[in-house]
């Protein structure tokens, strides 16, 4: 029987690529995003890749909307086998003391609370059905400290704590939870961020041993591997996919 996956932030970048890659494995996808246009585009791409998909508009920072995207997925597909918990924003790249409180709350609300709410409701369904697999999107900034992304970095370090502690609590009940820590990857979010902060792009590429950014397709390959049964004994891991970037820090 076909598996079902939820991909948050599925309307763009890493989420969109992962949705398509999972579809190639025959996984049906609930595409969750605040961006209806991007989400619907992904639904079409998933269908072209041969799987079924629905778009669910939801803001991951609102727990009621998170509960709703989980319920709608179960209503439509019957269960949830895989969860790519990925929606996130980067923030403005300002120095911390120049950052408004609103921006701090927004980044934490989407990146960290949104991820926690997602795991809270999705794993409830998975555990009731005997288990499942989750991949949370952290970042290089979740593994090392970085300039001008203090709040973002705090949320991504939090994602890693969430990942490891869920395993301590629920692995014996059939749950696998891993995190990916991508370095700068060529998605719309990063293009926008580097357009606003060109010096940071120079610094970033220069600091990557492979001297290039990653691609969403490379990250999607890792996500599909971790989510599916090929990675059955990998649990609580944080896999860096960054061209060697954080290993040289
Ligand atoms: N691209 C990179 O270099 C990079 C590196 C490390 C980590 N990440 C992380 O990867 C994830 C995806 O980023 P991306 O680069 O694909 O960005 P992106 O901007 O291309 O895609 C993010 C998607 O999330 C959606 N989104 C934003 N806020 C939302 C909300 N409140 N509710 C629902 N959906 C929301 C956006 O509409 C968008 O479709 C993020 O968590 C990001 O922090 C990205």
From TrEMBL:
SUPFAM superfamilies named among the record's database cross-references: NAD(P)-binding Rossmann-fold domains
Enzyme nomenclature, EC number: 1.1.1.304
Catalysed transformations (reactions): (S)-acetoin + NAD(+) = diacetyl + NADH + H(+)
Keyword Oxidoreductase listed: yes
GO molecular function: diacetyl reductase ((S)-acetoin forming) (NAD+) activity
One Pfam match: adh_short_C2
Keywords, sorted A to Z: Oxidoreductase
Gene3D superfamilies documented for this protein: NAD(P)-binding Rossmann-like Domain
GO BP, one annotated term: bile acid metabolic process
Family: Belongs to the short-chain dehydrogenases/reductases (SDR) family.
Job description of the protein: Catalyzes the irreversible reduction of 2,3-butanediol to (S)-acetoin in the presence of NADH.
PANTHER family reported for this sequence: SHORT-CHAIN DEHYDROGENASES/REDUCTASES FAMILY MEMBER
NCBIfam families cross-referenced by the UniProt entry: PRK07231.1 (NF005559)
Record's protein name: Diacetyl reductase [(S)-acetoin forming]
């Amino acid at each position: 029987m076909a598996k079902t996956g939820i991909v948050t932030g599925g309307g763009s970048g890493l989420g969109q690529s992962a949705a398509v890659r999972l579809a190639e494995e025959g996984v049906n996808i609930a595409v969750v995003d605040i961006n209806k246009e991007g989400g619907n585009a992904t639904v079409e791409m998933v269908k072209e890749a041969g799987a079924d998909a629905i778009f669910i508009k939801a803001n991951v920072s609102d727990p009621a909307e998170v509960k709703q995207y989980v319920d709608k997925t179960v209503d439509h597909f019957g269960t949830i086998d895989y969860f790519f918990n990925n929606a996130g924003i980067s923030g403005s790249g300002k120095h911390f003391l120049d950052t408004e409180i609103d921006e701090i709350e927004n980044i934490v609300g989407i990146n960290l609370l949104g991820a926690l709410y997602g795991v809270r409701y999705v794993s409830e369904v998975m555990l009731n059905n005997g288990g499942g697999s989750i991949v949370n999107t952290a970042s290089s900034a979740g593994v090392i400290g970085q300039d001008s992304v203090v709040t973002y970095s705090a949320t991504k370090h939090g994602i890693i704590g969430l990942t490891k502690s869920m395993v301590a609590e629920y692995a014996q009940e059939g749950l696998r939870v891993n995190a990916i820590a991508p370095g700068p990857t060529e998605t719309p979010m990063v293009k926008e961020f580097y357009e606003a902060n060109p010096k940071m792009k120079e610094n970033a590429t220069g600091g990557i041993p492979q001297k290039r950014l990653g691609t969403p397709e490379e990250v999607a390959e890792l996500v599909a591997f971790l989510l599916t049964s090929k990675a059955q004994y990998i649990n609580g891991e944080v896999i860096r996919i960054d061209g060697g970037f954080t290993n040289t820090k």
